[in-house]
Write a structure and sequence with these properties.
The complex is a heterodimer of chains A (about 625) and B (about 200). Chain A is of the alpha/beta class and about 625 residues long. Chain A contains 23 helices and 19 strands. In chain B, the strands form 2 sheets. A 4-stranded antiparallel β-sheet of chain B has the order 4-5-3-6. Classes of the chains: A alpha/beta (about 625), B alpha+beta (about 200). Chains A and B meet through helix 4, helix 5, helix 7, helix 12 and helix 19 of A and helix 1, strand 2, helix 3, strand 4 and helix 5 of B.
Amino acid sequence: MDTNIEEVEEQISDNGEGTTVSNINNKRPEYKEDKNATQNPILAPYHRSMEEIEKMPVIEKTMTVCPECKLIIQGIIYKDGENVMIRKNCPEHGWFIEKYWEDYDMYMQMRGYNYYGRGFDNPNVVSENKGVNCPFDCGICERHKSHTGLANVVVTNRCHLSCWYCFFYAKEGEPIYEPSVEELRRIFRNLRNQKPIPANAIQITGGEPTMHPQIVEIIKAAKEEGFDQIQLNTTGINLGLHPELAVKLRYAGVSTLYMSFDGVSARANPKNHWEIPLVLDAARKAGIGIVLVPTVIRGINDGELGSIINFALNNLDIVRAVNFQPVSLVGRMPTRLREAQRITIPGAIKLIEEQTNGVIRKEHWFSVPYIGGINKFIEALTGKYGYDMSIHFACGAGTYLFLDSDNKIIPITEFVDAKGLMEHLQNGINEMEGKGYLARKAIAIKTLAGMSRYIDKAKQPKSVNFLKLIGSIILKHDFSTLGKFHMRTLFLGMMHFQDEYTYDIARVEKCDIHYAMPDGEVLPFCTFNVFPEVYRDKIQKEYSIPAKLWEKTHPGWSYNSDKYIRNIKELTAHPLYKKTYGEMIDYFALDVNGGKHVAGFFNEKFAEEMVQLNK
Amino acid sequence: MDRRDIHNKPGYLEELAKESSNEIDLSKEYIKIGDALVRMPYRKIKKVTFTNIKKEELIDIPHAARLQYRLMLLDAVIKARVNYAKGQISIIYNPVGADNIREKISLEELISFLEHEGVHIDRNNMKDEDFDYVEEFYSYAFNPKVIREHPPYGMSIEEWKVRKAELEKEAKEIEEKKLKKFREWQKKYKEEHKDILANMQ
């Protein structure tokens, strides 16, 4: 896959005067088919005969769609060696084989945490079809099984970059979708009106949301409507170049930047590598936390997962989390390319283990619904609705890393018996079910007292008393403690969005990342984005303004005037650039963390890049 | 035609040119709801319901769902529902002659589309009526009915009924407290960044 890298390099250097780049990231890397693909063990599950495949052990059956014609068909999830695969047969388009999860043992273990949440008591759509047309009856209907955990609201489809793989922004001549603050306030209110659990966390997204001229007023409106957690999904570039905007956004209520970060090197991250040092600086001064969001593509940036975590640890004063997103291969692409680029949550987790000297191992990760157990326990104790976290176990995973005072990295599951603790809490919840308030409280205290069995104090970070911490969250609901907890830790998340090939309706009906639409509908992420032709693009187009009309009503605007022009020479000459990339500690090579040199560690790549650049 | 291939769609550029040459009165695109001026792509449109559709023409539930998907691919179809069990298709569509700038489709074109999909329409089993997009679709989605109740985990429905008002009041007070705390934080933050925030409310 070196060709991809060369293509990206070409894009970086092919810049006329040698210093500036426009239409950033708009070139699709060329793919040369691997003639030996059938010999490659990673690709082997794609290259078996149907006879062989049909003999493999079936794990479960689900409903899915034909990627070609969207007919709802049965999907069979089966075991192929270490891999969990999905196969489906469309009567018109034949067989489709796809990787579902690259670790059978982990799949079976995480499956145990699956549970149904509560969905909506006031669904925006009620369908007579009783769910049989799902996902084409969406809006959200009464059969959905999770409430909105994170609400995405698109505030513009204009973007200053032109990434080749992105469907979220208006290409030249396409209608412009940019609702007003008043219109957005209605959408926010709709989300806050959800029952029984109003959406409490919102992600303002785009396009590039900072291109909306009233972005500060939008954040202000979201805060006024009662959202606790407001994330801004951004490239960060506008904040890096205009740090005062970061201060205004923080003041208005932005809690976190949800920022694309596909790698530490320029090769892996042509999107915002050069501006990142400025963004970190602006966020630091404004006091905004950052979640780094790498989209992981096999063969493109999968060699930098360890470096990305290390980068986050080096900036732990403002980086709160890294949320890896194994790529969702939506849209048409050559089959062999899809197979080569496919990576699933365990695939990325295994690479992280390799690239961190085994400091972050696969057993350190837990499935997202696992956290739901803690929330259910708090809710049963207090009688106040809590967040459910009832997504499908295969959609997300996470772990917490503690960076201890001696620079030792301690994943939370090193000192917490996660499985045992969850079973213990679940027993407490079961016992509390239907009991009166006082009886529930007594059971809760007994359950809490028993929690110490699941925490190994000798292994916990020196700077943390974990039992005390979790006790104050549960008993006193003191979430400021949680804030401090976050300051000493780095959350690592994995969120694998679906595409037509991996689509599993059992997953989408449990989705809790929703898009709120201008027509009042609410849509799960993988309905909105996998079938844009009937949801995202269709609805946004209805509420858009034709490009030419936009041009007329916005004098001086043109498609090109929106595009950011990068001056690489100026950005690399900035003192922050060298400081950010050139002075990092390699945490995974420290004695306390194993002490071995990590192959291809970023500082070396950076030195090479600087040599190239100086040439 | 996949909407994602929009650039390659035949006639797309012509369509754009047409849009640009039209003198569109944008003010007609907005309505006032309370104090808010909101964009409303449709007002009076149509809803057609076809009943007594032969089940063999719908084939089975998955094919009925795919027909619904295919109907929704049409730009002028706002929503479609294909109910296999009832042998019924209902389509909310933007009819030719509607006073808006969106794509339009006639009833005849819809019927012909369905014929092409193998579904034959008996006009005696068809009801084509006016549909108020704002009142019947948009307003509902923005103010949906409560259809059931879930008590918090651990609590019986009986206890929930008794304590609901008290707990909802508490939840409201918590919301107010949080906003108050945020305002206090804002005040402090503004002081720290007065050079940038001096004029901000």
